Amino acid sequence: MLETYFAAPKTLGCLRAGPSGPYLDGFAALLERDGYRAATAVRYLRAAAHLGHFLQDRGGTLANFDLSTFFRHLRTCRCSRSKGGRRNHHTSFGAKRYRDYLVQIGVCRCSVMPEIRRADQPLVVDFRRWLQKHRGAAEPTVRQYSRGATELLLALGDDPMHWNATGVRAYFLERAARCGVGTAEKLVTSLRAFLRYLSVHGRCRADLDRAVPAFACWRLADLPKYLTTEQVDRLIAACDGGSPERRRDRAIIMLLARLGLRAGDVARLRIADIEWESGTLRVSGKGRYQVRLPLPQDVGDAIIDYVERRPQGCDSDHLFVRNIAPFRSFAHGDGVSSVVKRAMKRAGVVTPAKGAHVLRHTAATEMLRHGVPLDRIALVLRHRGVDTTAYYAKADVNALKQIAQPWPEALR
Q1: C-alpha distance across the termini of the chain, in Å
Q2: CATH 3.40.50.2300 holds for 229-399
Q3: How far apart are CA 333 and CA 144, in angstroms?
Q4: Beta-bridge partners for 294
Q5: What are the residues whose beta carbons fall under 8 Å from the beta carbon of 376, sequence distance 6 or more?
Q6: 44 is catalytic
Q7: Is 370 annotated in the active site?
Q8: Exactly one of 16, 175, 270, 357 is catalytic; which is it?
Q9: Residue ranges per domain, the chain?
Q10: Which of 209, 246, 321, 362 could form a disulfide linkage to 195, CB 3.0–4.6 angstroms apart?
Q11: What would be the CATH architecture of the domain defined by 117-217?
């Protein structure tokens, strides 16, 4: 398989003679199957050979190695065999991809990070299962809550029956002093959820979750951040073009701006979720909450344009995939937000808030301006209560002016 990328017999002999030689043909086949360009595959194969020689020179083996040591070596690498760039980022990416391949075929053991080992404590494992089974929590939420539970166990001890309100409160205040506002808010949520779980199962004192102080953050005190109609048009126009990447970006942005989907909703969309005959879109949101939304004509057309130019050889059933090899689906909503950020940069749209969620706010405010009642907006946005949707009522400044009362001093 190496002959696909290398023609010189001497080069082929050197590659196959090295420590990585027995596995390079299989690695080359994997790169070709995943759609890597020839130039990228050549760099990755050279990086794999470089890694093998590096381990051999230091007495290591491919069965168990630490990539961080190899990355430190690259900073000052002077190896005569490291062709293709010593400090080139392709070498790092190629080494990572090669390590994943070795793990896949059983040659290398998957390295376990210390934080993952700590998260394997029985209480945390049971908590994770409970979140997934009874709360329908998504994997990012499970990871966040598990991280908070693990840190609490490390700080207060492995037996929650010995915990008290003073210790829990002191831990939170000390931890919150070392992080930002957003992290502190998430910490409150994760700690209370973990303590409620322990309390319900009789593993700690009752109502211990109340020892976690409330974090003052009045999110309804300001106006929602959204884009104007002109900015949305510029954002969509910035995705014009016939390339698969631009067609994908256009379809993603129109879904976000027209239907108010979350970034995670878009990342999880599958081709089978589009019901073309009825013109609806099946969306699975938080807590396995599933709804059907009407699919506007322009959004459907944008999706069809992308599907027709979707990367060939992609076996994922997800609607949107990455535009570079390997052509996999987005792991989570961060990839979708990155698409929006890049489009904003191309369009020259400057806003205080960047990412996919600003388009969700935009969709809500647009529906409000067109006279859609709050309860209907709540259905589209899949809010559990209309009070959350009422946040967008403040965006209709003209309507608010009609009911605003003058200050008493102005009546004198």
Answers
A1: 89
A2: no
A3: 15
A4: 280
A5: 367
A6: no
A7: no
A8: 357
A9: 2-104, 117-217, 229-399
A10: 209
A11: Orthogonal Bundle (1.10)
